[in-house]
Amino acid sequence: MRTVEVFDTTLRDGLQVEGVSATVDDKLRIAEQLDLLGVHYIEGGWPGANPKDIEFFRRARTELDLTTSTLVAFGSTRRPRGKVDEDTTLRNLVEADTSAVCIVAKSSEYQIAEALQTTLDEGAAMIGDSVEFLRGEGRMVMVDLEHFFDGYKANPEFSLRAIEAAVVNGASHLVLCDTNGGTLPHEVSEIVAAVAAHVRDDAIIGIHCHDDTGCAVANSMAAVEAGAGHVQGTLNGLGERTGNTNLTTVIPNLQLKLGYECLPAGRIERLTAVSHHVAETLNRAVNPQAPYVGSSAFAHKAGLHVSAIKRAKDAYEHVDPALVGNGTRFVVSEMAGRATIEMKAEDLGLELDGAVVGQIIDDLKRLEHEGYHFEAADASLELLMRRAAGVVPEFFRVESMRVITDELPDGDFTTEATVKVWVGDGEDAERQVHVAEGNGPVNAIDAALRMAVGAALPALDRIHLTDFKVRILDGGSATGATTRVLLSATDGERDWTTIGVSPNIIEASWRALEDSLVYGLLQQVG
Ligand SMILES: [Zn+2]
After folding, report:
1. Quick one: three-class SS letters along 451-519?
2. What per-residue confidence (pLDDT) applies to 5?
3. What is the 116 CA–ligand 1 centroid distance (Å)?
4. pLDDT, tens digit, for every residue of 186-230?
5. From ligand 1's centre to the CA of 164, what distance in Å?
6. Distance separating alpha carbons of residues 43 and 138, to the nearest angstrom
7. Which of 234, 402, 437, 500 could be 14's S-S partner, Cβ–Cβ 3.0 to 4.6 Å?
8. What is the per-residue pLDDT for 305?
9. CA dist., res. 253 & res. 324, Å (int)
């Protein structure tokens, strides 16, 4: 089995995406996740380009304990007509103190003439000198050959000369970059094969693609099939413009479909968890439709599929979702047939008789008619089914609640909630009355409820609300319309979403909040 190295550039190229920024702490946490996944290389950033990356490499030395991955610092070749030992970029790169470095080099005639305004001789010398200098400092040197495919198409002799300059001076990797992202798979195959025939075993050929034609993953696979042994990309395909090669897609494609070894044994199962963890850290949710790791990647809705998949797991799934740490999901809606509910119940370990299943289907139809939408709120559906089966303990019961919002003379608003709750089940229940302030009604109710039941149910501490979405369902009647609230929460291990619907936004929020807390408690205390 041929090994294909995985080089992650989430912490450098990936952070070029609009609207995403990461603190040094975030970057350290992400690096730990990447190590857990088992990628070969983690590109940590460009020391010298910004103070944050200098701090990252400084802290990484003592705070990161990588067991599988090698940390790589990124930089560029020396300036035109400059000297390597006086070059700030190269000095910063050495000071990052990593065993491996990756430098970007111009490898196209057009870029050297236009962007650098220098000669091809000087262009090749910049690469050769820089690699030689960094090798002299004891570093493993990878070279990112920028605009390689466009340059090769226009002037292959010079592009190969750039490669030679890197190889003869000791570069370990020649990373062919489709910087503008416009190259197509058949062109990548042809050019990588030509380069591989030229380079032989003198260096490892790498591939770095951008997704501007939607072909980054296909291009990376084409490169591997043509002889590349190193794939660069980002988790969840983060990156400038349309993004970089999505590692969460290309890794399982190469490993599960084509038999290349990309990750150490037993690690690819962590793919879904790591993908979601990193997305959470960067506050950028994973696309539900992302291949392999998306929440819909193995979700089945149509009644026909569901009854077929009940008979044979692989009838409508291209791989076993467990291989990448994901799972089959049966999406239940008013369209659901009996088979879907039975499947879902089996999934949850519930034994339901025919009458209970019929009751659940009737409830679903009625609630969906009122505006509930269970496809988006798995946890509420699960509770509905568990309640129908009579297996949900009563953790607490609300006697009454009141929310007051005041506008103060200075224009600020304050919100205060009072809740009266019975904590516990049946005769042992104890009455608690608590008042709390919040920055809005949901926040205030949440705070008061936690004060009331927190002492008896410490597991509540681990449940945090992460997202709150409100949608007006019947826009025609304006403020008289029905409100649907979707509430997402996490306990650090699982994420779940619940739903509440009512003409009163506070009531809708409360329904979603109650389900969310009960669901979270059920997960923790059984
Ligand atoms: Zn790039």
Report:
1. HHHCCCCHHHHHCEEEEEEEEECCHHHHHHCCEEEEEEEECCCCEEEEEEEECCHHHHHHHHHHHHHHH
2. 98
3. 19
4. 999 999 999 999 999 999 999 999 999 999 999 999 999 999 999
5. 22
6. 18
7. 234
8. 66
9. 11
Tell me, in angstroms, the distance from the centre of ligand 1 to residue 244's CA. Answer: 7
How many Å apart are CA 275 and CA 36, to the nearest integer?
11
Q: Specify which residues 8 forms β-bridges with.
A: 42, 233
- C-alpha 117 to ligand 1 mean position (Å): 22
Reduced to 3 states (helix: H, G, I; strand: E, B; else coil), residue 449 is: helix
Centre of ligand 1 to C-alpha 66, Å, is 24
Terminal alpha carbon distance of the chain: 44
Region 462-491: mean pLDDT is 80
Q: CA 49 to CA 507: how far, in whole Å?
A: 51
DSSP annotation of 3 reads: B
Cα of 209 from ligand 1 centre, angstroms = 7
For residue 265, the CA-to-ligand 1 centroid distance in Å is 28
CA of 210 relative to ligand 1 center, distance in Å = 6
- Contacts of residue 214, Cβ cutoff 8 Å, sequence gap at least 6: 242
Q: Model confidence over 349-385: pLDDT tens digits?
A: 898 888 999 899 889 888 888 888 887 788 999 999 9
Question: What pLDDT digit, counting tens, does each position of 64-104 carry?
Answer: 999 999 999 999 999 999 999 999 999 999 999 999 999 99
Q: How far is the CA of 279 from the centre of ligand 1 (A)?
A: 19
